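(Fold this chain)
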Amino acid sequence: MPEKITIVQVGGNIESALKGDYQIDIRAIFTEAWQQTLKSRISMNVGLLFSVLLGMLVSFVGSNYLGGIEAVLADPEASMLLNVVVTIAVWPFLGGVEMMGVSHAVGMKTNVKMTFSFLQRASWVVLCALFTSVLISIGFQLLVLPGVFLAITLSLTIPLVIEKKMTPMKAIILSIQTLRFKFLSLLYIYVVLFLSLVLLFMPLALLIESSFAPLGIIVLLIGISFLAPLYYNVKGILYREIFGISIATDKYVDNPHNSTKVVPKASQSDSDDTFSA
């Protein structure tokens, strides 16, 4: 007889999200995200560092192939091509970092290997990243406000592609349809994160021309080592509260706030859109 496991839906769900039937408690989100950051920032920072270094390497090689960095900056077509190449190279791994935030939102521990755990969805992740980047760029070129609106409402598309196994276009449409209901709350959250980043650069800007410039760099790096994981943990909690996360577990679950169902373990496969616990 196959072992029974429980599928637990934690947080919201797509049906409710499409109606705007979800809540965003800004204070609670930041509090929880900070607690998660204190416990999990090392693995996320290593994953982010790998992605940044890979992006720098690809940029260096690509710019040399295209005639040098000055030639790339002077040629919009070359610059756009290089951006596409960097996106293709980096986003399959950044998708893994995003999913670390989603995992933390349901109390799961993560490690650096998770950066490489979703490469089977790399093509969809890259297409989604390219589509959202193009849409946001068009929005900013038309007017600033459309760009800001798209940047906010498209911020959770990658987890939809990975965790819900949606196509990029379906994830984009669903993200806009649902996040528009709480746009102002989401805008507030991302503005706070952005202003925090600006504040981290202020010591460096004030000390850049003095002998204390290294101190400004140290403050910036330490601050980013907390802020970057905080950003992804905030996104993970938002994803949980809005779309919900399915977890597969063989443990007894008694939570009236979550919908559960029991299915044979033998029916589960690696293609399921559930986490294992």
Remarks:
- The two ends are 21 Å apart (CA to CA).
